[in-house]
From TrEMBL:
Organism: Tolumonas osonensis
Parts of the chain that traverse the membrane: none
Enzyme Commission (EC) number: 3.2.1.86
UniProt-listed NCBIfam families: PRK09589.1 (NF007154), PRK09593.1 (NF007158), PRK09852.1 (NF007356)
The UniProt record lists the keyword Hydrolase: yes
InterPro entries given in the database record: GH, GH_1_N_CS, Glyco_hydro_1, Glyco_hydro_1_AS
SUPFAM superfamilies in UniProt: (Trans)glycosidases
Gene3D superfamilies: Glycosidases
Assigned keywords, A-Z: Glycosidase, Hydrolase
Record-stated family: Belongs to the glycosyl hydrolase 1 family.
Gene Ontology BP, a term: carbohydrate catabolic process
GO molecular function, one term: 6-phospho-beta-glucosidase activity
Protein name (Swiss-Prot/TrEMBL): 6-phospho-beta-glucosidase
Extent of the signal sequence: none
Length: 468
């Protein structure tokens, strides 16, 4: 290893309310977009009319009731932070209610208090793929500017309530996925004849303004807090040294970088304006939008990293990867997970340098992990050496990025405990250090078991990354 991890580095894991809590209609909670997706983003269309049925998200792993025990396991590993999200529809069941739901507010008070009592700092995402369904049926999701007002009010409510407990916030999870999963990320349901790209970027604009207003409110209400954006990040490699392939890869990169550019730099880049112009549309902006974006840039840039991408200008070029939202071509130099996600540890170092060189703001890796099928041995042990290898290889490249000079706040693995997959709605696609006895149909005891990786990650944290 070429560098030490910084002192006070944030070590932990990352979860999302809709993928762990369950209790989807308990204590006044309203429905969210996740509650009407029976089998995840890739495998289902939203059920907007008719019987909901029994979806995996509805019960998930019951973190709503088991959080104290689960947090104790995180603390046992030595976490000093946990990234989690607030379910917006627990606070405002319809998204724009006149008054917040006290039971929902109290629930997160209890969760944050428990984390703090166990030595873990809550790192909170304000909206993680669970837009209140009421905002979709009433306004059409983020196509409407009305959602800016609703989101700002929600943010001010939780900032005020939790100002003494939460000091690190994120505005939207993987905000760039409005281009890849428009219903999940923005509540968009397209009408016949609509220009989908225009609508996606219009919704994105509303989210970007809302994000900036959240930064403003956070700084005003919690002056000692930090608030960042969060993007799904990947480096894109050209398939060959043909300049056309490089241009294609550059365009793919910009699908991601656009969102960081606006939130970290504070303005629309010229390449985006050209994209809009060449596709025959303009983004509708209200007076003052550009000033808001410029004045309230984020404090840091958080991102998820799972894989890299390959792009070619040749439409007949090779097999595409499967199982992910972003597409891309198969990279013959890389292995893949059981779900077809190509494994590229060095891409982690590349994306760290790309983002830091571009923004010169602190970075925070808030998702990185391997979804795999785990088997429980007769003695209840789980030998997940493949997960240890994956995380070790990536953390070695994180250390290289730090040696390159990247300012990095922390690292939270995705799914420190098994949870419902956002992409496929499965439980068998497991990420955790902690096994949860639940299957794809929600059947099982819910019993928690420590995997081999549990003890490995505990040692990593105890040595601040010295022992990988």
């Amino acid at each position: 290893m070429t560098a030490k991890f910084p002192k006070n580095f944030l070590w932990g894991g990352a979860i999302a309310a809709n993928q762990v809590e369950g209790a989807y209609n308990a204590d006044g909670k309203g429905l969210s977009v996740a509650d009407v997706m029976p089998r995840g983003i890739l495998n289902s269309e939203p059920v907007l009319n008719g019987e909901l049925g029994d979806f995996p998200y509805h019960t998930a792993i019951d973190f709503y009731h088991t959080y104290k025990d689960d947090n104790a396991l995180f603390a046992e590993m030595g976490f000093n932070c946990l990234r989690l999200s607030i379910g917006w529809s627990r606070i405002f069941p319809n998204g724009d209610d006149a008054e917040p739901n006290e039971a929902g507010l109290q629930y997160y008070d209890d969760v944050f208090d428990d984390l703090l009592s166990k030595g873990m700092q809550p790192v909170v995402t304000l909206n993680h793929y669970d837009l209140p369904l009421g905002l979709v049926t009433k306004y059409g999701g983020w196509r409407s500017r009305e959602l800016i007002t609703a989101y700002e009010r929600y943010c001010k409510t939780v900032f005020t309530r939790y100002q003494s407990k939460v000091k690190i916030w994120m505005t939207f999870n993987e905000i760039n996925c409005v281009l890849h999963a428009p219903f999940t990320a923005a509540g968009l349901v397209f009408k016949e004849g609509e220009n989908k790209l225009q609508l996606q970027f219009q919704a994105a604009h509303h989210q970007l303004v809302a994000s900036a207003l959240a930064v403003k409110a956070c700084h005003e209400i919690i002056p000692d807090a930090k608030i960042g954006c969060m993007i799904a990040a990947w480096p894109t490699y050209p398939d060959t040294c043909n300049p056309d392939d490089t241009l294609k890869a550059m365009a793919k990169d910009r699908q991601m970088l656009f969102f960081g550019d606006v939130q970290a730099r504070g303005y629309y880049p010229s390449y985006a304006k050209r994209l809009f112009r060449e596709n025959g549309f303009e983004i509708e902006m209200a007076t003052g939008d550009e000033a808001i974006l410029k004045q309230y840039a984020v404090d840091y840039v958080a991102f998820s990293y799972y894989m890299s991408q390959v792009e070619s200008a040749d439409p007949d070029r090779r097999e595409k990867t499967g199982g992910n939202l972003m597409g891309g071509l198969m990279n013959p130099y890389l292995k893949a997970s059981e779900w077809g996600w190509q494994i590229d540890p060095k891409g982690m170092r590349i994306i760290l340098n790309q983002l830091y060189d571009r923004y010169q703001k602190p970075l925070f890796i808030v998702e990185n992990g391997l979804g795999a099928i785990d088997s429980v041995n007769a003695d209840d042990s789980i030998s997940d050496d493949y997960r240890i290898d994956y995380l070790r290889d990536h953390l070695q490249q994180v250390a290289e990025g730090i040696a390159d000079g990247v300012e990095l706040m922390g690292y939270t693995t995705w799914g420190p405990i098994d949870l419902v997959s956002a992409s496929t709605g499965e439980m068998k696609k497991r990420y955790g250090f902690i096994y949860v006895d639940k299957d794809n149909e929600g059947q099982g005891t819910g019993r928690r078991l420590r995997k081999k990786s549990f003890y490995w990650y505990k040692d990593v944290i105890a040595t601040n990354g010295e022992e990988l």
